[in-house]
């Protein structure tokens, strides 16, 4: 049985946000190793209910083991949180958690292909039922497409230069492993004394693209609002600025008492409507010193909390 240890981030803050109560109904859309889910089930004992999902079958298995002591109080599925509204009843939930990104077991297992620090197949699929992998993207996307991905999803300044190096190299020999891609990037953009590996941003961009993480997040936020009841809370933990911007903008838009047509908010063109959400965190919450010391991965975590009106 594979080990699946993952330190859950901001657990106390997530519990404070969702305020689980006995008999409440909760959703963990990124169940991972089941740390947050176990905390929610414990806090909503004896009769709280949890719907949990993860795109990764290994995470769903790990979470079922971790939650065994709460048998009869949860349902777990291998699914994207983008599809939550397809199986969780509308207006039924007191709280929804989305703890985004990758888990340590995904990063640590070479065969999943997420990490440039270990040699594995260039895969990066969270859901291995999906057909296209990072290798497909790296070996088939056009120069323009790769350079746009590296820039927009990775914030990589040398996006075009790295995309060009990849396109040249793949015409001789397609990329199959994480190591071969990391080595090419290191060669094309050598480290200049920085502490981060030169492949960090490209790997982040590929992972986000392969799993359509930003599209899934937009759909997941909409789905969460549908399944929440009035007064129910949505807690979103993000790990990079692209995700955080989407969560923040979503809260802002849904909290407005008007909509506007077109890309710009022109006061004369506003149409009144009842706001759907209240933003409970004007500023995102971040881990405290103790958590940062205990779990370096929590460094970039930010929590935003919204409440359905
Ligand atoms: C940071 S981990 C979650 C850890 C979990 N909260 C815990 O306490 O163990 C992120 C998880 O989200 C999953 N994930 C990412 N995008 C997803 C999506 N669109 N739908 C469902 N799960 C997703 C990943 O597979 C990963 O297991």
Rounded Rg: 20 Å
Query: Helices and strands: which structural class?
Result: alpha/beta
Overall pLDDT, averaged?
95
- List unreliable stretches of 5+ residues: none
The secondary-structure element order is: HEHEHEHEHHHHHHHEHEEEHE
- How are the strands ordered across the major sheet? 3-2-1-4-5-9-8
Total beta-strand segments: 9
Distinct ligands: S-adenosylmethionine
Give your account of this protein's structure.
The protein is α/β, with parallel strands linked by helices. The chain contains 13 helices and nine strands. It has helices spanning 11-18, 35-43, 57-66, 84-87, 104-108, 134-140, 143-154, 159-172, 178-188, 200-210, 213-227, 241-255, 289-294; strands at residues 25-28, 49-54, 74-78, 93-99, 228-238, 258-260, 270-272, 277-279, 302-308. The strands form two sheets. The protein has a seven-stranded mixed β-sheet with strand order 3-2-1-4-5-9-8, sandwiched between helices. It has a two-stranded antiparallel sheet with strand order 6-7. The longest helix has 15 residues, at 213-227. The chain is globular. It starts with 10 loop residues before the first helix and ends with a strand. 43% of the residues are buried. S-adenosylmethionine (SAM) binds at residues 6, 8, 29-30, 32-36, 53-56, 59, 80-82, 99, 101-103, 126, 216.
